[in-house]
Structure formats: C-alpha cells, structure tokens
C-alpha cells in the first residue's frame, strides 16, 4: 500500500495507533478505575457502541496508509473482548504494519497466549505493580494475588511473545516495591518499565505529591545496581532505557510527568467507543464510528483522519501543573487505554 506521511502542527508524524477494544475490566486498580467510582452500578458501553472487528480492521488499514507502523491493543482489559485473536489476525494481515502489541493485566494470558501468537501478535506489556500478594490485591481492588499475573507472563514467554512488565509507582502505595520488582525482573530476564503515576481521567484523585519521579526511582536503583543510559532506538521511543552494567538486561522509565516527551509524540488513540484522541489528556474526541456507520468512504475516512492529525497541537505533559490536572476535561484511562 502507498504510504503518505502526515504531520501535525508541531511537525510530528503519525506513527503509532493505540486501540482500546473494550472499556470493561476484571480489575479495579486504584490509580485507574477506583472501585468506589466503578462500582456494580457503573454503566459500561453497550456492545453496539464498540467498533466491530471489521470496522477496526478498516480503520486500521487507513491509519497504516497514513503512516502508522505500530498498533497496540489495550482497554479496559483487552482480553475480555470476545475472540481477540480474530482481530489480531485481521490486523496482522495489513500490508505495511510492522508491529502489533497488547497491553494487559495478564490474567487471561494462560488461556490466550498461544492463539494470540499464532494470530500474529508480536509483544505484550503486562502490568504488575507489586510482588507482594496482599498489596497487589489491594491495588487491583479485586484481591487478586500475583500468581495469576506471573502465570500470564510465563504463558506469554512460552508462546514466544516478547514480554515487558509495566509498574505504575504511586507514593505511599507501592514505592517500597521498586527494588524487589527490579531484582525479580532482572533475574527473570524481563524488561521492567516504571511508569510515573499520571493524572488521567478525573476519578483517581491524582496529586502531584503522589508522583514518584524517574529521578527518585533511579536513586533507589543506584543503591543496588550500576546503570548505564542507552540511546533511544528510534524517534518517538517513549521509555528512557538503562542497561544493568555488564549484562544484556535493561530497565526503562516512562517519565510522562517529570520529563515530558510531547515533542516526539507520534501516537494517536482510538477509544473503545470509536473516537479518535490526539493526546492521552485531551478530553475532546473526534467521532469516527458514526461517520463510518453513516456510509463514509475510505477516502473520506482518510481525509478526516488527516485533518484531525494536521490540526493537532497537543503537548499536555509539557504544560501540566497541579491546576491543569484538576481543571482540564480528560478522558478516563479505561476508555482510552494508556
Ligand atoms: N488493563 C490493561 C493493563 O492494565 O495493562 C490495559 C489497560 S491499562 C489502562 C494500560 C496501562 O495504563 C497499564 O500499564 C496501567 O498500569 C497504566 N495506567 C493506568 N492508570 C494509570 C495512571 N493513573 N498513571 C499511569 N499509568 C496508568
Ligand atoms: Fe483494569 Fe488495566 Fe485499569 Fe487496572 S490498569 S483497572 S487492569 S484497565
Ligand atoms: Fe503525547 Fe499528549 Fe502524552 Fe504529550 S501529553 S506525550 S502529546 S499523549
């Protein structure tokens, strides 16, 4: 397929697409879907509001024609969406797409890892915020211990998928787990990425004071390990990577709060209800689902996506303050998928 390169107002090309396939989740992580806000009465999207796999395939093809090389599936919990390997298979057949990843809490990987790999999935990022069962159960709000997630990681590796581990660090919650997680991941050959706690959505009660910065995490690691910085492998690489000296293992940091990386942000997001978001923190989505369902042609869809991207000037993390975090209208993480 002929690829065009489109750039936004800050000259950033469109390279990545993150697709949230479902807004539901089997966890209620405190920093993402707090149980008191996402209780039994919470109304999730009806099935008819979700883009079908055929619609997602069509939109993904158009994005790839406009420059997207990588797609990541996320949620809510993406493995709760029925028959996800069918979608992966459809996406993996798109000419020009180089990479398909999945972000998951890992619990359903023992059931799906082999099928996902066979369908063309390349990598998974598994979220795990603690190795302590009691604490992990409190964080995920469902009292699920670490074993189901560790089993998920093992299943993904056995299936031949690339595996990274994501740990959100929140002050006073799991900062004591920084070192045990590093030791565990290093010993088991897993790349760990520490994620700074972010002010996504408006339900998690985020405060700047709750953020443990990359610098603070790095200081903890330095007490035990010798680290050397690695150069970014490509424009737009989000994680800042360090190698444990004298080994092949590395560790990464997603510094969305303390060292923003908006100037190289090449990522577009498609929410579970079919809206395009040009920034994780921009509450104004652009409808694509109804446009498509009302009979838009591929050319019209491509024109619309192009004009959305060309009109993009987002750099929220560059501008974030305690005040913007509290006052800006923002989309919930479970809709947009991180
Ligand atoms: N359910 C899947 C999972 O947990 O991996 C996929 C969706 S989840 C919204 C995607 C990523 O966002 C996860 O790595 C999660 O830890 C991260 N995340 C959620 N809330 C966050 C927050 N407030 N700050 C930083 N990262 C967050
Ligand atoms: Fe669910 Fe993932 Fe959010 Fe946790 S971080 S509540 S697993 S969507
Ligand atoms: Fe990209 Fe928005 Fe995050 Fe900046 S704040 S890196 S523009 S998603």
Number of strands: 12
- CATH class, named Alpha Beta
Order of helices and strands: EHEHEHEHHEHEHEEEEEEHHHHH
Name the helicity range: 25-40%
Q: Which regions have little confidence, pLDDT < 50, spanning 5+ residues?
A: none
Overall pLDDT metric: 93
Total domains, how many?
A: 1
Output the structural class.
alpha/beta
CATH architecture: Alpha-Beta Barrel
Strand content: 15-25%
Give the CATH topology.
TIM Barrel
> What is the helix tally?
12
Binding site for [4Fe-4S] cluster 1: 25, 29, 32
GO biological process, one term: Mo-molybdopterin cofactor biosynthetic process
Binding site for [4Fe-4S] cluster 2: 262, 265, 279
Keywords: 4Fe-4S, GTP-binding, Iron, Iron-sulfur, Lyase, Metal-binding, Molybdenum cofactor biosynthesis, Nucleotide-binding, S-adenosyl-L-methionine
Task: Please explain how this structure is put together.
It catalyses: GTP + AH2 + S-adenosyl-L-methionine = (8S)-3',8-cyclo-7,8-dihydroguanosine 5'-triphosphate + 5'-deoxyadenosine + L-methionine + A + H(+). Its EC number is 4.1.99.22. GO terms for molecular function: 4 iron, 4 sulfur cluster binding; cyclic pyranopterin monophosphate synthase activity; GTP 3',8'-cyclase activity; GTP binding; metal ion binding; S-adenosyl-L-methionine binding. Belongs to the radical SAM superfamily. MoaA family. Its cofactor is [4Fe-4S] cluster. The structure is a single chain. By secondary structure, this protein is of the alpha/beta class. The chain has a single domain, classed as Aldolase class I (TIM Barrel), CATH 3.20.20. Helix content is 30%, strand content 17%. The chain has 12 helices and 12 strands. A 12-stranded mixed sheet has the order 7-8-9-6-5-4-3-2-1-10-11-12. Strand 10 and strand 11 form a beta hairpin. Helix 1 packs across helix 9. The longest helix has 13 residues. The relative contact order is 0.17. The mean pLDDT is 93. Bound molecules: S-adenosylmethionine and iron/sulfur cluster (SF4) (2 copies).
